[in-house]
Amino acid sequence: MRTREDLEAVVEAAGWAPSVHNSQPWSFTIAGDEISLRADVDRRLRAADPEGRELLVSCGAALFNVRTAIRALGFEPLVGMLPDPDRPALLATVRIGPAEAVDEHTEVIRSEIPRRRTHRAGFAGRRVPERMLDALVGEAEREGARLTPVGAEGAIRVLAALTTAAQEVQAQDREYSLEMIRWGRPPGSKYRDGVPADAYPQQARRTHPHFAQRDYARGQGWGNPDDQPMAADTGVVALLTTRSDTRADWLKAGQALQAVLLHAAAAGVAAAFHTQALEHPQLRDFIRAQLCSGEFPQMVMRLGYPTTRTRGVRRPLADVLDEGGNPG
């Protein structure tokens, strides 16, 4: 059993997981040598994510961080997924298992947890090597999901067009717009969640084909004026899918996503996320049928070498560690 400080460090690591709009929709409790992960449903996107799929994908990424941080302490993480049907907000429990040797691979991945950043612009023209893509495919497979780099130019154009179309529809929808207002932070904001104004370029260059980015500035002229990418390569477009579409699959997808992101980050590769089309059931069904061989798309992303680096903001430990032990 490790000290309370060790387990709190594990929870802090969990909080560096990516989440839609950086909403950080999770909370944790520590009881003895066990950490519980719960969904914070007050942070669910009610317009974009009414079923909570993206929320659970986000929490799955946090769960992967928990597992990795425990392994880096020299112990096996013993995970119970969705352990209690009567407490749907309780997504997982992770106990400290037997001691195990810490290998260099685990140490490298653990070190990337607080350094990884979501990218919100084009990439440098340098191509991600095929051997790297193969390795990332393997990481996703080990977590029970499939990562498919999209090679066909026609399929990439379709995904780009669907992303742009979905964003145009969302821009005209009041409920979607209110969610963007909630999570798009103005310059100088003291909030430790949401997307800060310096986390994206003020005038991002268009990629070809162009994948629309979320408009967190909402016409206010926000963005980092010093974060102007010199290149605007699309990068490698990839789909993360699962065979079925249950809550357990969403958690698996999140763990697979974070495994891919951390291994990519260790090689200097970042990811830009495009979930707009997946937030429309009809478009998600179309992508599933036409581009995913019937598997369920959980994430559309672009992978590449970023030309800039943005800062990350996360809620402090006291905000995500529930000392009261809410039963969920």
Automatic annotation (TrEMBL):
InterPro entries for the chain: Nitroreductase, Nitroreductase-like, Nitroreductase/BluB
Organism name: Acrocarpospora pleiomorpha
GO molecular function, one term: oxidoreductase activity
Protein name: NAD(P)H nitroreductase
Residue ranges occupied by any Nitroreductase domain in the UniProt entry: 3-38
PANTHER family xrefs: NAD(P)H NITROREDUCTASE RV3131-RELATED, NADPH NITROREDUCTASE
Organismal lineage: Bacteria, Bacillati, Actinomycetota, Actinomycetes, Streptosporangiales
Family matches, as SUPFAM superfamilies: FMN-dependent nitroreductase-like
